[in-house]
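DOMAIN: structural biology
WANTED: fold as tokens
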Amino acid sequence: MLLQSLYGLKQASRVWNETIDKHLKSMGFEPADADPCVYTRGEGEDECIVCLYVDDMLIASRQKAAIASVKAGIAEKFRIKDLGRARFILGIEIDYDMERRTSGISQNAYTESIIKKFGQENAKPCLTPLEPGVQLTKADEPQTDEVKAKMKSKPYRSLVGSLMYLACGTRPDISVAVAKLSRFLENPGEKHWDAGIKVVRYLLKTKDVGIVYDGLLGTQLEAYSDADWAGNRDDRRSVSGMLLMLCGAPVVWRSTFQKTVALSSTEAEYMALSDCVKECVWMRRLLEDIGAEQVGATVIYEDNQGAMALAKNVGYQARTKHIDIRYHFIREKVVSNEVELEYVDTKNQLADFMTKGISSKTLRYLMMRSNVGHKFETSN
């Protein structure tokens, strides 16, 4: 008879989550509506936040005594290892500059492990992860048994997976390259492999790049939305890109292929904008849950006047009547004053590097403006 869950069983993680959830609630914590793995207790100066990832925890509060109290409460039931101030979690390094009131996250050690894993320590660095105009298509997939056999010896999935963890953690600048590489996991060709290695070579001189948050800029959320129309030559699907910014730097970013083919650049931008609005609505809920309720609407910066007009005009438009009704979710959120659209010229569209390959000069500029750069280099 099995009386308790054993480590490694498929039920174990759920049982553990139910156990720690019950204990945190007994300590007065409540899970956030927007994210059940974020717990809060108290308000204002006494507020304490616990972020849970399986059995790793981050505890945040303005009061050191509150943090000590939470640690003691958890230690009453579980054996814990107190690592002090958060410096490293889930492969992400955390740095602080208390004088400047900035904090930064990066994955320097993990990046170095990728470079070493794929034998690029002595390679020539690349200036960009994806050059402008480069196309990766199904036409580049292996066509002969000889090439297919050769490609089987290449750890392509491992390469893309390694880069994806980095892109999701602290490196939005490689997100679009990783999104394009991910399309060929089933049957990668030599060109796809070379493109992946090029991303690794880009990391050679940017391994200490991370994201820097400026506490002086406050917690008012803003976002950038962009799209690259019909950029995929195989099926002409467009790429959506978004950045959600807090304290002057990205907290959410996405680079994804749209699910349907857009018939115009306006439609592509509108579909991208819809996804961005959904993320903003969720982030506003999460910020409210942790005591950072937003004042007024969240500004979303868009560089397509047609998409903005479509979002604000509830009248009938023959040229856009085919657009799926789900994308008109944007209009509802504009009317309810949850989001507000503002025009930004393309050169200052920070989400541009999330949709396509761009020049190294433009990439560096947009990264600098987004506070994505070498440790504690900011645009301020």
Observations:
- The first strand starts at residue 30 and ends at 31.
- The two ends are 63 Å apart (CA to CA).
- The domain at 216-374 is CATH 3.30.420.10 (Nucleotidyltransferase; domain 5).
